């Protein structure tokens, strides 16, 4: 599925630009300086290597080469070594500043971008991805700035210097290196690529095993009830696959390593053979050839580092691409100043059409008005657009045509803060902060007293959750609230809504079967919320539906099939009656009085 908000840039962005756009101005400057310095060190290193050739020549012949005697060349080598040392020191300082800036600014840049994205952008999958992106993936991308880019630049600089220098010194040596170096880099790159790809696959298989183990543990009650606590096939399959993949990887990555080693050997050996032949020919003095072989040996290390950094940088592309996706995602136009609200608490859909993609419409010419202070229940088949309608009120997305009004004003004519101040949302997929149970409620009204927080929690039934948790109210709920059940998370979310007392409450009731106690809490809370707010509830429980002042039945084709009070619809609404009967059967309800 492609939605308009994740369109891939068809032209790959140059990697360096992906890094740069995540960094501050001063960080960018530090990076430029660091890379320039690395180019300089690379050059010095190349020169130092090359200096061995004339040095060998002067040693062999006793005469000066290029105007300098042995002593002169030795002194030059010393000077180069000192220079390289000084530059290295400076570049280490600047380089770390650039890397530190990357990690800091990337977090800030991404954070700022996320704050501007439409709420609809954040689904659960993405929420998980973002947390891994900003936690460890950026650290490894920072590694790219600190080590890999510099290694790449200095490696190339050395490479170019040595190749150019050899051509100047003797064209035959130049030719040897020009042929061999690219070949070696290619082979090294291939071997590294294979190895990294294999590592990634092994990790995936291992991750599969660990998630199967979690599943196995989580499903224990069900498995035992079915008498199947031994021989859980998915786990066994995953373990077998993991073992196979480990074994395969071992073979392939050994092969890849061998290829890498062979390619270096190839470079050195062929260098030795060809230059040895030149020496036998008398074309070059033996000492120079010895120096050349020494250069080749040292040069092989440079090539190895170079290909390592290329592969490392390639691996860093993934978080950078995700970051780009966030930075380039479409944002909703937003105005700065608040608009007057002629009818506070009112919600209105005025001929709204909306679809997640142009081909499929979820709402089509949809109109509905919910007067302030009333409670409306929306019912309809799964996929008929109930949750979508609720999220359009909170401007998760902008409508394709028509208008959504809150408080009598087009929501596009309000800043997000003005819209959000009027709403609370209790949605199905409640994502809690990895903070204490108490803070997760109190956050919805920072001014609230402890007594108010407690009252809201009590009403929503969170008190009973706190009672059984090891550290009570101070228990940390885990990222997203994963240590609580779905029903419990929704209760926390209801408590937030009760505390915030916004003029409008959007409530997407959990579809999962709630236990009786949970259901009682929800109903009590809804009764309390409707006293202070307009309530729009996407209802699955008959009790909730029956309480509503007005019921809207969606037709599954983007419009409204029937609407009215429970009494009116129950007697004359075919669809509603249908809905009611099926739910009643599912819930094992017998209707005694309406
Ligand atoms: P309901 O709440 O009534 O079950 P939804 O509003 O969740 O229905 O979904 C209406 C339609 O829109 C469904 O076909 C669903 O698959 C689709 N849909 C819902 N959310 C998204 C989304 N984020 N991206 C693309 N399609 C979606
Ligand atoms: Mg829904």
In words, what does this structure look like?
With 594 residues, this protein is α/β, with parallel strands linked by helices. Strand 9 and strand 10 (560-564) form a beta hairpin. It has helices at residues 15-20, 25-61, 70-116, 124-169, 171-218, 220-225, 233-281, 286-315, 317-328, 386-393, 416-422, 437-442, 450-460, 463-468, 486-500, 516-532, 542-547, 566-572, 574-587; strands at residues 347-354, 363-370, 375-379, 401-406, 409-410, 423-426, 504-508, 534-538, 550-554, 560-564. The strands form two sheets. The protein has a six-stranded mixed beta sheet with strand order 6-7-8-3-9-10, sandwiched between helices. A four-stranded antiparallel beta sheet has the order 2-1-4-5, covered by helices on one side. The chain has three domains: 1-170 and 311-331, Up-down Bundle (ABC transporter transmembrane region fold); 171-283; 347-587, Rossmann fold, CATH 3.40.50.300. The protein has 19 helices and ten strands. Helix 2 (25-61) packs antiparallel against helix 3 and helix 7 (233-281) runs antiparallel to helix 8 (286-315). The protein binds adenosine-5'-diphosphate (ADP) and magnesium ion.
């Amino acid at each position: 599925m492609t939605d308009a908000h994740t369109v891939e840039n068809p032209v790959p962005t140059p990697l360096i630009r992906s890094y740069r756009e995540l960094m501050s101005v001063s960080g960018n400057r530090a990076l430029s300086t660091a890379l320039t310095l690395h180019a300089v060190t690379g050059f010095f290193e190349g020169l130092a290597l090359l200096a061995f050739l004339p040095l060998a020549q002067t040693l062999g012949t006793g005469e000066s080469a290029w105007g300098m005697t042995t002593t002169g060349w030795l002194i030059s080598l010393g000077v180069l070594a000192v220079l390289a040392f000084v530059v290295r020191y400076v570049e280490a300082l600047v380089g770390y500043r650039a890397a530190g800036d990357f990690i800091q600014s990337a977090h800030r840049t991404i954070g700022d971008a996320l704050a501007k994205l439409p709420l609809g952008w954040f689904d659960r999958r993405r929420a998980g991805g973002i947390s891994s992106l900003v936690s460890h993936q950026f650290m490894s991308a920072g590694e790219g700035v600190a080590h890999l880019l510099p290694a790449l630049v200095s490696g190339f600089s050395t490479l170019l210097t040595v190749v150019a220098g050899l051509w100047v010194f003797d064209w035959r040596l130049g030719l040897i290196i020009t042929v061999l170096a690219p070949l070696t880099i290619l082979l090294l790159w291939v071997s590294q690529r294979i190895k990294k790809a294999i590592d990634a696959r092994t990790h995936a298989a291992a991750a599969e095993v660990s998630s199967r183990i979690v599943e196995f543990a989580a499903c224990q009650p069900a498995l035992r009830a079915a008498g199947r606590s031994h021989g859980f096939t998915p786990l066994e399959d995953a373990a077998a696959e993991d073992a196979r993949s480990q074994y395969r990887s071992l073979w392939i990555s050994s092969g890849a390593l061998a290829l890498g080693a062979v390619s270096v050997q190839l470079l050195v050996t062929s260098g030795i053979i060809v230059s040895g032949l030149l020496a036998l020919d008398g074309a070059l003095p033996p000492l120079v050839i010895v120096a050349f072989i020494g250069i080749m040996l040292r040069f092989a290390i440079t090539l190895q580092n170079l290909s390592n950094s290329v592969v490392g940088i390639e691996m860093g592309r993934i978080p950078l691409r995700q970051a780009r996706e966030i930075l380039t995602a479409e944002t909703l136009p937003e105005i700065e100043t608040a608009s007057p609200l002629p009818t506070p608490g009112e919600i209105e859909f005025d001929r709204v059409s909306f679809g997640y993609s142009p081909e499929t419409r979820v709402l089509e010419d949809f109109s509905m008005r919910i007067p302030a202070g009333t409670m409306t229940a929306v019912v309809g088949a799964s996929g008929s657009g109930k949750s979508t309608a609720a999220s359009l009120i909170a401007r998760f997305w902008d409508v394709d045509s028509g208008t959504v009004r809150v408080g009598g004003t087009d929501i596009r004519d309000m800043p997000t803060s003005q819209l959000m101040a009027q709403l609370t949302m209790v949605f199905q997929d409640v994502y809690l902060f990895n903070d204490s149970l108490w803070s997760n409620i109190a956050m919805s009204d920072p001014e609230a007293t402890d007594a108010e927080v407690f009252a809201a929690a009590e009403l929503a039934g969170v008190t009973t959750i706190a009672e059984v948790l090891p550290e009570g109210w101070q228990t940390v709920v885990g990222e997203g609230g994963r240590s609580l059940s779905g029903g419990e998370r929704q209760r926390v979310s209801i408590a937030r809504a009760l505390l915030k007392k916004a003029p409008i409450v959007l409530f997407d009731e959990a579809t999962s079967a709630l236990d009786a106690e949970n259901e009682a809490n929800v109903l009590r809370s809804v009764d309390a919320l409707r006293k202070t707010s307009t309530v729009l509830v996407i209802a699955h429980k008959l009790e909730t539906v029956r309480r509503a002042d007005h019921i809207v039945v969606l037709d599954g084709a983007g419009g409204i099939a029937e609407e009215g009070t429970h009494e009116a619809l129950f007697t004359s609404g075919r669809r509603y009656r249908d809905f009611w009967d099926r739910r009643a059967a599912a819930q094992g309800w017998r209707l005694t009085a309406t």
